[in-house]
Please model this.
Amino acid sequence: MDLAFEIFLWAGIGLLFLGYLWHNNKHLHRSAGYILFGLFWIGEVPGYLEINDYFNAALTFLALPVFIYLAYHEYLSKKWDEDPEVMRFLAGGISIASIVYFSVHRIPFFTGWLIKIVTEHTVWLMNLFGYELSAGAIDYSGNSIFYRTTSGSINVPIDGVNIRIILACTGLQAMAVAASFVYSTVTEKIKKVKSLALLIPTIYIANLIRNALVIYLTKEGIYSFEIAHNQIAKTFSVIVLIILLIAIFEMMPKFHENIMGTINLLKREPNHQKQQE
Model:
C-alpha cells in the first residue's frame, strides 16, 4: 500500500466525518475531506488497469472530479452562509460508509472473519440442495492480520468447486452504503429502524443467494464463471437493490428528497435569490 494514498484515504474520511458531526468550520472540513478522498481514488486507477478492468478504472478516475464538485458546493454553502440538508446527508453517508468498509478492507483479520462467515453460510445454503461443499481456510494473500501490505485479494476457497469468496462477495459495500445513508437522513428514528431492519438482512440474504447461484451455474456447467458472475449474478443484485430502493422511498420520504436534492445540486441557487424570485 502506498503510504501517501493511505494518508489521503484516512485524512479524507476523517475530515468528512468531522464536518458531518461538528458545526465549526464544517464546510472547510468537508471540502478538504472530499478533495483528499478523491485523490485517494486516483491511486486506485493503476491497479485496475493492470488487470484490464477498464470499467472500474474509469469509475475511480472519475471519483476525483465528482468529489471536487461536492467540495465546490461546500464552498458555495460557506459563501452563501447555507447548510442544505442534502450536503450533510452526503457527508455523513459517504464518511460513515467509508469508515465501515475500509476498516474491514484494510484490517485483514476483519476481512478474513467476514469472508469466512459468508462462505460458511453460502456453503450451508448449497448443501441444503444436496451438494457436499465446505469452506476452506482463510488465505490472507501475504498480509499480516493487522493491516494490509499487499493488494492481493484475501479469500476463502470453497472445497468442491473452483471458486473463492472475496470481500466483494460479502455484500459489505451495499450494506455499508445503504445503512450509512439511511442513518444520515434526518427523519423519525422509527423509520430509520424499520428501513435498516429491511435493508441489512435482505441484502445479506440476497447476497448469499447470488453466491449460491454463481456456484450452481458454474458447477453444473450451465454457464462459465464469467457469465454467471459478471452478467447473471450482477443483474440479480441490481434488481434487488432497485426494489429495496423503491421500498425505502416509500418508508422514508426524506431519503427520497435527499436523493433528488443530490441531483438538483446541478441547478442550485442561493436561498436569498430564490426568495427574491
Summary: The two ends are 52 Å apart (CA to CA). Strands lie at 134-135, 155-159, 163-166. The mean pLDDT is 94.
